[in-house]
Amino acid sequence: MSYTVAEFITLRLKQLGCYHVFGVPGTSCSDFIDSLVADPDMQFVNTVNELEAGYAADGYGRQGAIGAVSVAYGVGTLSMANGIASALTERVPLAVINGGPTDKDLRLEAEYDVLFSHSTGFGKTDLKVFRKLTLGAAEIRTLEGAADRIDRLLIMAIERSGPVYIEIPQDLWKQPIGHFSPNLAYSPKRFKRGARPFTQAVADKLAQASNPVVLLGAELVRFGLIDEAMRFVEAQNLPFYTTLLSKSLVSESHPLFCGVYDSDLAPSTVTQGVESSDCVIALGCLFGIDHRYMVTSLGDKLLRVAFNKAMIGTEVLPKLSLGASLESLNQLPELTRTDRQIPTVAGQTYQDRRAQWQSKLGDDPYNGTLGHDGIFAAIGDFLTEQPDPYYISLDTCLASFPGADIPVLDTQCFLSNPIWLSIGQGTPAAIGAYFATGKRPLIVTGDGGFQMVSQAFSSFVQNQIPGIIVIIDNGSYAIEQFLIDGTFFTEPNKAPLDYVMLNGWKYENMPHVYNGGIGLRVTSYDDLLGALHHAHARPDQPCVIAAQIPMKDLPAENRAFLGI
């Protein structure tokens, strides 16, 4: 059977488990979109804007298959660049499929100095930009060898776990691709040079350590290595934590699970359990600014391997793949005591996990009104009552701290952006996660982040995605206020910074604007719990819930950090 270039890329995406491509249509990619529409196995998900499309493809790619996005050249691709940067930073397999200028476009621009549509006039802008935002980028300007070049890029996205960029001149989409292998065959590379010194270092540390722990990271999800990691954890009877990026990679009902290490800003028993350990084995973890203290203070007590790099403290070992390291670690004899007391949080409710703060949860210390802690107490109680798991998407905001303590008993049903830390990512990324998993989304977002991407609610309505979006409505970029000048929260009469203030929206009225969905506003724990149940009973449409809280409210760990 003969395939066009567009049909060939469609076939390859399916072979990699991608059945949804997100985007905004443009003439440069319309022939590719036509190929998707013509294939009964594929769906082109038309988003409201390009940034939403990039975030959605990012959310899709986090679920085990490659994500894919296609938008208009120039004005579209550059608008979604932040979503691709998120995938690059947090190592998400994703393909940017772009339609580019033809040879004629480039020739006429060079000869007559007349710009083709969406050209900056400075030559191959998209290609140059996305070379910096992807693991690999190429334009396919000739048919000879095109299939092999496209295959190499798609394999790179899978093997190295990150985004790639493929640009096709728009007059080549319908041209025959020529000969290609029927299947996209490849075998993941495993680098083993560092296996012996890394395994020996782990064995030596475990033999001497009195309180060793394991940190499990997102690479275990990206490469399907969770079972191998848990074999090591269980054989050695090691307490384990996850990072926020990898929350729910294992059910939090596991008896060795001790919590989510979300940030060294939070002086909780979880952070103390990791930071006071005399041996921390980090498997597949990405570390960002919120882990800086932990990484630097542990020194050579931290042994880690992630994305083909192994380290003991600051010492870099020979190249080592996570899969090869786990294969070697699982050959170790039992090195740890089996009678140690494990500080597990398995079986604990949200309130149980938060009891360490010795603060009253459900009602905050603001005259009984709803606050961050009350919001998550209501969400935690709601989730424990549901027989079918929700997919939780936690946007970057102050809620990142208490959100880490929501008990998640199902696996791979939690999304956050804690390394790239892009405010607003959580809502559109949940669209991609929904199409990849079919699980109903429950999104928690700050009002500032939601205002950046609020048009995504239209995509929820149009695609009948029954998401529940809880907006923490305090009228400001509270996380920026906290980071820039925390004295606003400690001094009762102090005014907020002018530039963190938001225009107050009536989020509950959004269904009238977007022609569908449910809109609610709540001001108490009981109201929020009732609103969640009301939304749950309507699985045919999305719901937005504005959870109104005082502007000076903070989660418990932020209050502890400021000494209040």
TrEMBL record:
Record domain Thiamine pyrophosphate enzyme central: where: 200-322
The alphabetical list of record keywords is: Decarboxylase, Lyase, Magnesium, Metal-binding, Pyruvate, Thiamine pyrophosphate
Superkingdom of origin: Bacteria
Provide GO CC annotations from the record. Answer: cytosol
Biological process according to GO: aromatic amino acid family catabolic process to alcohol via Ehrlich pathway
Which family is this sequence assigned to? Belongs to the TPP enzyme family.
Locate the Thiamine pyrophosphate enzyme N-terminal TPP-binding domain: which residues? 4-107
* Name of the protein in question: Pyruvate decarboxylase
InterPro entries, alphabetized:
DHS-like_NAD/FAD-binding_dom, PDC/IPDC-like, THDP-binding, Thiamin_PyroP_enz_cen_dom, Thiamin_PyroP_enz_TPP-bd_dom, TPP_enzyme_TPP-bd, TPP_PYR_PDC_IPDC-like
Q: Which residues form the Thiamine pyrophosphate enzyme TPP-binding domain?
A: 411-545
Species this chain originates from: Pseudoalteromonas rubra
Kindly give the SUPFAM superfamilies that the UniProt entry links to this protein. Answer: DHS-like NAD/FAD-binding domain (SSF52467), Thiamin diphosphate-binding fold (THDP-binding) (SSF52518)
What GO molecular functions are on record for this protein? Answer: magnesium ion binding; pyruvate decarboxylase activity; thiamine pyrophosphate binding
Q: Spell out the Gene3D superfamilies in the cross-references.
A: 3.40.50.970, TPP-binding domain (3.40.50.1220)
Task: Tell me the lineage of the source organism.
Answer: Bacteria, Pseudomonadati, Pseudomonadota, Gammaproteobacteria, Alteromonadales
| Cofactor(s) for this UniProt protein | thiamine diphosphate; a metal cation
